[in-house]
Amino acid sequence: MKQITFTRMKSILLALVFVLGALFTVLGAFANLTVLFIASAVTAVLWLAMILRGKTDLHTVFFILFVVLILYGAIEGIALPWLAVLLVLNLAAWNLGRFEYQLSQFDVVHNQRQMEDHHLKQLGLTLAAGFFLAILPSFLQLELPFVIVIAAVLGFVFLLGAGMSALAPRKEKRE
Amino acid sequence: MKPPLFLLFLFTLLFVLAGMITLSGELIALAAPFLVMAIVSIMTRPAAPRLRFEHEVSPKRARQNEPLNIEVRITNQGADIPELVVSETIFEGMRVLKGTPKVLAYLPSGDSLALEYTLQASRGRYNQFLTQLALTQPLGGFEWKALHSDAVPVLVYPQAETLSPIRIHPPQTHGFAGSIPSRRGGSGLDFLTIREYQPGDSLRKINWKVSQRGNQTLYTNIFEQEQVADVGIILDARQHVNLAAGQDSIFENSVSAAASLAELFIGDGHRVSLLVYGSGKQRVFPGYGRLQQRRILDTVSAVTPVLNFALTNFDNLPVRFFAPKSQIILISPIVREDIPYIRKMVMRGYGVMLISPNPIKFIAKARGDNDSLGYRFAIAERTFMLQQLRQIGVQVVDWETGESLNSTLQRSLHTLQPNIRRGRILV
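The joint structure predicted for all components is written out below.
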């Protein structure tokens, strides 16, 4: 039987996925959402099993599954702070999963501890900012005309699209 | 932009649109973590680093399958690099024995990274080492990639076999002492003849037995002087005669033979030159000693069989490149069309020895076919062809490439026709 080694990153990742799955399951149970309860439990168990098994890179698949579940939970009326916590946990697990996979591809990692610390610091700060920005609207009450909201949202969507197309890699024209 | 960033943008858009459709502010708010992560990813996208590379390879010249120690030192002369992937390109024919040629590193400003590994390489000239660099970022949105090349030429010599001394019959030798019997009297070891004593002859060389018989005349033993000769090695690099089967090829065997023979003849003190005929006409002019051996090995380490329509037969063989009446060692699988050109060499007064890797047995061994009618016909045709060459005075060594060249040479040269003499062409 293959021996499982627990590196620092793997331990953090396992903890994140466990908390994410447990929180989701509990929220599903409390909100009487059987689909959410079962789906989140199964997804979390599968994800944990995959992490324990080692070098596979299916983190993105589980990340997308959890995003879909968060979307479902939001539609079913789970409170915003809980959803934001779930989303941040999901993003962190996805990112660390890919990072752990990258580390596992190398026999030699130079200054591994500093690299992990830097990675965790940057990820933590970014997700903290994202979390506070997500729950900020629950502390604010604004009354805006519908037209302005629609215009703002459409403008944002347009800006996002333009940004994405600007960042997409361009094919060089052949002369 | 890498897929993770695209996914972040996609989910931002998805949550915003879902919020608009369901008129749910919560869904729009949930797009924030995605958006923040995407923006931070864009803001911290990796830029070109300032790195200094040092490649150390030892030894710079090695035998095939001899370990090559590579040390790469990378110094960061710019800002901190959070995630740097360094990967050395392992060329075809190379194999990593020890260490790892790739590393992931966190490289602060001014810090250095050392990458050490041991390679085993097949014969060839490796002019540069390529290092693939990739800078990734913690949020995974972007990657900066580059290829760095360091010109560190490394030569991997072919495997050479240590050969026992072999008998060659150059029509002419040089004045310096060597290992070829010159048919001239001098300070040799082998007895040549006797002559009348002349004042100045060493008393130790007087043949007392013969002197006793005669009319009170003293006779002196004359020994055969051994001298050095001019040896020209022709390596046949024509593609159409050099067959290959999988990793093995006749040409590789020929190259090893050329290296082994060059080492043997230079070791014996001969003046050796080399001509590689096929891809072009690569040549090493005649010379003596270790430096010449290195020149020859440098040349044969980089040769490959190439199809050159101008050099499909020996018509353009620059025989004049070799000293007149010297010994030519032709290493070639040989085809029927080559016989007239070899005959021409013999008629010009060169002593020719043909070392011919057997292409029929080589292919038969690779295919596991050594009993078919076709095989037997091919062997018969080749035997006839080699017999023709023997009849014109060529020393022929039919070499089955699976066997050691040394044992083949010893066996073949032992059974060579004893009546072949310098300059005599027996037709």
